[in-house]
Specification:
The structure is a homodimer. The radius of gyration of chain A is 20 Å and the shape is elongated. Chain A is α+β, with helices and mostly antiparallel strands. Chain A has two domains: 135 residues, Nucleoside Triphosphate Pyrophosphohydrolase, CATH 3.90.79.10; 64 residues, Winged helix-like DNA-binding domain superfamily/Winged helix DNA-binding domain (Arc Repressor Mutant, subunit A, Orthogonal Bundle). In chain A, strands 1, 2, 3, 4, 5, 6 and 7 form a seven-stranded mixed sheet that branches. In chain A, strands 8-9 form a two-stranded antiparallel ribbon. The first copy, chain A, has five helices and nine strands; from the N terminus they run ββββαβββαααββα. The interface between A and B is large, with 43 and 43 residues. Chain A binds a DNA duplex through helix 4.
DNA sequence: TCAAAAGTGTTCTTGATACACCCATGC
DNA sequence: GCATGGGTGTATCAAGAACACTTTTGA
């Protein structure tokens, strides 16, 4: 069955879905959003937000739409992860899923009630329930990608609120990379890139010296990258 | 249209193909395989080898099968690249394609006549003809991936014959990365990893001093990687 | 004997790592 | 005044970059 030989009128072909692994960083922990399924198969099991791709929308549009419909989340970092197509991964019929991962800063994105009354909630990445389909595999793949990518692209900032402290940023990296970083070396490295803007503001309501707040200079990064600069932690 | 709500019996859904970007390194140049289309759309235009995914095969199996059917190539490095799903990328109907890229050493993989008499041939990556569908975009994506990956995974060896000289290896990197490398530093770096086995053999039939032949120690790399070693050029 | 590529070390510069104490603030 | 995290500098070590000449071989 080569592309050229086939007359496309009707022949049985796989269904296509998108699924989203939505990462958040809250209370110092890495979390993801899961949806509780209302119907068979895997009724009442937890699963990734996602659904079928429509004929008139791109894959990314489908991911954005499903994310909004099922979790209320919009305007976030979203990137294609991998496409999973094992025969039998869906017990109903042949379904290929194009997985995406998203990074959100949780304060800006509280989950709204999903349109169809399904339950959506945040789970600690380290304490996930049993998942529907091959969604655990998808999450494992997303975690590997996140850990790899966070080191050479400034995507960590997507998980933080606009204004953050250096300690918070360091802690984010420590949680994702699962190892401790030296405070002085981390600050030296990150500040030497000149990609953080020190604000005229400090932390509030903390029971210790209030830390300097920074924001990430996305504009400057874009410009530096264009000129061959490589972000690296 | 959420996964839960849909009753999967029949509803119109996208078609799914796989396409393969097959890289080869020959006569000091980076090349890829293209197939000349025998039918509409894009009749007589060049395109990537590929075709429709069957219901009873995984995505990777489909890629392997199409590669063999259309080019005769088998048993090569193959990795999923990206999934392209723009609406309108195929003028006939909605088709989503899962792209793979392959690395072959050309001496071991001469193209056989394709099963269906379509023409397959190697093209210089730097001199490609007009391509069907969005295949130029797919190739650009594959090149970016190859350039990125070759630096931190030992995949370059997949493009060379089993036995090769250090100069040949260096030249491969220079062609892929599009910059010159210092001979002494390159040799120092690559040999310091202790991943090359010096053979009791030298080049033959060259009009100059015959160079030492090496082979890549895949077994040792696997072991080192397991213990946290990172390949890097 | 000439052309062509193989092969080989050292110096310098830069970035990574290791490491400990004082400071500001709220309670 | 004490507990808590904020904030800072230096010395050592390792890796990367720059750089030129001799050797071997076939034609």
């Amino acid at each position: 069955m080569n592309r050229d030989e086939v007359r496309i009128t009707k022949f049985k072909h796989p269904y296509v879905t998108v699924d989203c692994v939505v990462f958040g960083f809250d209370e110092g922990d890495l979390k993801i959003i899961l949806i509780q399924r209302a119907n068979a198969p895997f009724k009442n099991k937890w699963a990734l937000p996602g659904g079928f791709v429509r004929l008139n929308e791109s894959l990314e549009q489908a991911a954005i739409r499903e994310l909004k419909e099922e979790t209320g989340i919009k305007d976030v970092f979203l990137e294609q992860l991998y496409t999973f197509g094992r025969v039998g991964r869906d017990p109903r019929t042949r379904v290929i899923t194009v997985a995406y991962y998203a990074l959100v800063n949780r304060t800006g994105h509280l989950i709204t009630a999903a349109t169809d009354a399904k339950t959506a909630d945040w789970f600690l990445v380290k304490q996930l329930p049993m998942l529907a389909f091959d969604h655990q595999t998808i999450i494992d793949t997303a975690l590997t990608r996140l850990r790899g990518k966070v080191r050479y692209e400034p995507i960590g900032f997507e998980l933080l609120p606009e204004k953050f402290t250096l300690s918070r940023l360091q802690h984010l990296y420590e949680v994702i990379l699962e190892r401790n970083l030296d405070k002085r070396n981390f600050r030296k490295k990150i500040l030497s890139m000149k990609l953080l803007i020190a604000l005229n503001e400090r932390e509030k309501d903390v029971a210790h010296r209030a830390a300097q707040l920074y924001k990430f200079d996305a504009q400057k990064y874009k410009e530096l990258k264009r000129r061959g600069f490589n972000f690296e932690i």
